[in-house]
Design a protein that fits this description.
There is one protein chain. The chain has 58 residues and is mainly alpha-helical. The chain has one domain. 97% of the residues lie in helices and 0% in strands. It starts with a helix and ends with a helix.
């Protein structure tokens, strides 16, 4: 019985840790996705501007 109580307690602690880590990971993931999105937008702008600039200069 004592072993089962200890395992249940550990399981409860694991759930609390995983829920806390989930709350921490969601904003981090959003920040990463936002940063990646901005980087891709910048890359897209450069990708279209460089050929346009070369065509202007030719």
């Amino acid at each position: 019985v004592l072993v089962l109580a200890q395992r249940a307690q550990q399981c409860g602690a694991t759930r609390r840790i995983s829920s806390v880590s989930c709350f921490l990971l969601v904003p981090a993931r959003r920040a990463w996705v936002g940063g990646a999105t901005r980087s891709l937008e910048l890359l897209r702008v450069v990708w279209f501007l460089v050929p346009a600039r070369r065509a202007e200069l030719s």
